[in-house]
Amino acid sequence: MGRQILHRLLISLPALLGVLFLCFCLMQVVPADPAAIIAGPDAKAETIAAIRLELGLDRPIIVQFAEYIWRVAHFDLGRSIISNKMVIEEIASTMGPTLELMIAGLMMAIPTGMALGTIAAVKRGTWIDRAIMAVAVAGVSMPIFFIGLILIQYVGYKWALLPFLGRAGPVWDGGLPNLILPAFTLGSVLIGPIARLTRTAVLEVLGADYVRTARAKGLRERIVIVHHALRNALIPVVTLIGLQAAFLLGGAVVTETMFSWPGVGRLAVGAIISSDFPTAQGAIMILAMAFLMINLLVDVLYVYLDPRVARQ
Amino acid sequence: MNMQAPLALDAATEASVAPDQIALPGRASIARRLMRDKAAALAAVFLSAVALAAIFAPFVAPYDPYYTDLSKAMQAPSAAHWFGTDTAGRDVLSRVIYGARNTLTIGLIGVIVGGLLGGFLGILAAYFKKLDGWIMRIVDIMLAFPAILLGLAVAAIAGAGLTAVIIAVVVATIPDVARVARGAAIGVMGQEFMEAGRAVGVSDTVLIWRYLTLNCISTIFVFLTLRFGQIILIGSALSFLGLGAQPPTAELGMMASQGRDFLFISEHIAIIPSLVIFLIVLAANILGDAFRDVLDPRLQQ
Predict the structure, then answer these.
(1) Predicted TM-score of the model (pTM)
(2) Which helix (H) or strand (E) element contains residue B192?
(3) CA distance B283 to A242
(4) Cα separations (Å) of B160 from B106, B168, B247?
(5) Contacts A146 to B, Cβ<8 Å
(6) Is the distance from CB of B99 to CB of B60 less than 8 angstroms?
(7) How far is A277 from chain B (nearest CA, A)?
(8) What is the rounded CA–CA span in Å between residue A276 and residue A78?
């Protein structure tokens, strides 16, 4: 299992380099000259040239890229043009809330999706099955901001049940009410796919020999389904979450923006709109790395859940 | 992990229905089988209606989508303005029709350009073993950038706008299509007619186009129809974030975003464009599922 994980780590190295290179390019193709931006609008040509030299902008691209990696490895992502704070500090303060939102979203989506999928599988062919599957298709087709808008308008504003603006601190310190609506919005994108896949997986498992054996032993149907069927259905669901990590991340960007949630996604969008290139670049890089990490984590989890994978 | 069991069952029951249905489905028969699925038929009718309205927007839209009249701002839906008016007094129905035009264009360009490039890469990778490793490595790196991040990156470089969204959805579509196309093409490569073609001296170009591509096309097509809705969702999310179409251009995601600021005063401005996006994507997904069942039952997820 250790070797498997190591192998997986090695495979993700080129992707990591690719992400770094693209983020590096991001800086290169930005229309404005970074030296001119730093020097300000009234700077003389020689000032700009001096800054250019100081930033190393006159050296070959490959050297600049190597230096860029060096700086990233030392957590030096430059300074924000707008706030003049170190970009890494800005990102560090937003990572917690984003992680919190994603975990809360998953904690909402996985049990709900799996429960719906299992019920649909057990009640296969009935109106309950059809209703659940219709909801799942609708959920997959829903723009995430539509769900957010409706929750904000009704649950948040009209019925005033839950707060919908900003974060009120950590969950254990009175932050829970503020987390519920964003987490529900983010989780809603995943319920549909999880429900669909769980249904397929459970249906398949229900026909397996060991389920028949379990039933033949006289185990209660509940135990057969929860312990035998659902546990094995978990494997494809974990894979799916890896595949859906892109939605989770994209959803987090939209959700954070809608609910003024102080996360990395909101930071990135704000930075792009205000042309704060260093911050935008740093935030995009962190998000891309987070995406790689999620996929890595899913693969490791996969090995744990299905030991057969490790032996291959 | 074998998730095809239930589908294989469906295929078996279908095959035993009538002998004339075992024959390869012609175009007419595909349409007929699609129409038998009521939800798919409804989705097809809805999508065609939206597409027609979008194409003929200048003739269909009751008002000029850019004509502002502040005295009529934020009116609720009425007989004169079916979908009400927005914050600048513009007719929301007319803007939705023009907005659907932009939104559908983003989806179509994403599917067509991304599908062509991705399909080309995937088929090349399957046909030329030497290229396979390289192409798939590039594809893996591209997959490390989810669509929304690509959108953010492109918008950071090129500035927010429709172009940024289109580039993002095209680039995001390429790696997925490349993978599906490669998978399908590798299956075809193992078929005897490929070997036979090569044995009688058919050139690479002809083998790739006539033998390989034509046999992968239905799989790629089904994947792209399923992908269309997702592209629209991504595009409208980017516009919603303010990185896509810029005001006053009518685009559904951007309209929802503008309406968001006045949600508590008059909710229809944000809700109606969002609802239209939802219905378009829902119809596209239902139709995509139906296409899959008819054309390529093996392609699932």
Answers:
(1) 0.85
(2) helix B192-199
(3) 26
(4) 15, 11, 11
(5) 256, 271, 274-275, 277-278
(6) no
(7) 7
(8) 11
- Mean pLDDT by groups of 10 residues along chain A of 312 residues: 74 80 75 66 76 73 83 83 85 92 92 92 90 90 93 90 86 86 92 89 83 84 81 78 80 93 93 85 88 82 71 53
Contact at 8 Å (CB) between A71 and A77? yes
More confident residue, B26 or A269: A269
Chain B hits for A207, CB-CB cut-off 8 Å, are 5
pLDDT tens digits, B243-291: 888 888 889 999 999 888 888 888 888 999 999 999 999 999 999 888 8
Quote the minimal CA–CA distance from A250 to chain B in Å: 5
CB contacts < 8 A, A to B, total 154
The residues, any chain, with a CB within 8 Å of residue B65's CB and separated by 6 or more, are B90, B91, B94, B95, B97, B98, B99, B250
List chain A residues with CB under 8 Å of B278: 138, 141-143, 146
- Rounded to whole angstroms, the Cα distance separating A195 from A205 reads 15
Is residue B217 predicted with pLDDT exceeding 80?
yes
Query: How far apart are alpha carbons B36 and B45 in whole angstroms?
Result: 13
Report which of A26, A27, A31, A20 is spatially closest to residue A66, judged by C-alpha positions.
Answer: A20
> Helix crossing, A231-243 with A277-305: angle to 10°?
160
Strand-pairing partners, residue A193, are none
Nearest CB to A26; choose among B157, B240, B286: B157
Chain A residues in contact with B5 (beta carbon < 8 A): 203-204, 207
Chain A from 191 to 230: CB within 8 A of any B CB: 197, 200-201, 203-204, 207
Q: Which residue is listed with tokens 């990572």?
A: A95
- Which chain B residues are Cβ-neighbours of A292 within 8 angstroms? 144
* Three-state secondary-structure class, residue B85: strand
Tokens of B271: 């809700």
Q: What is the pLDDT of residue B25?
A: 52
Q: Inter-chain contact A197–B144, Cβ cutoff 8 Å?
A: no
The more confidently predicted of residues A254 and B70 is: A254
Q: CB of B103 within 8 A of CB of B253?
A: yes
DSSP codes of every residue in A1-56:
-HHHHHHHHHHHHHHHHHHHHHHHHHHHH-SS-HHHHHH-TT--HHHHHHHHHHHT
In angstroms, the CA A263 to CA A101 distance is 9
Taking the CB of residue B259, how many other CB atoms lie within 10 A of it? 24
Tokens at residue A265, please?
A: 């996604």
Q: Do A273 and B243 touch (CB under 8 A)?
A: yes
Lowest mean pLDDT among A57-66, A249-258, B72-81, B86-95: A57-66
Query: CB distance B274–A149 less than 8 Å?
Result: yes
Whole-number pLDDT of residue A185? 94
Q: What is the DSSP letter of A79?
A: B
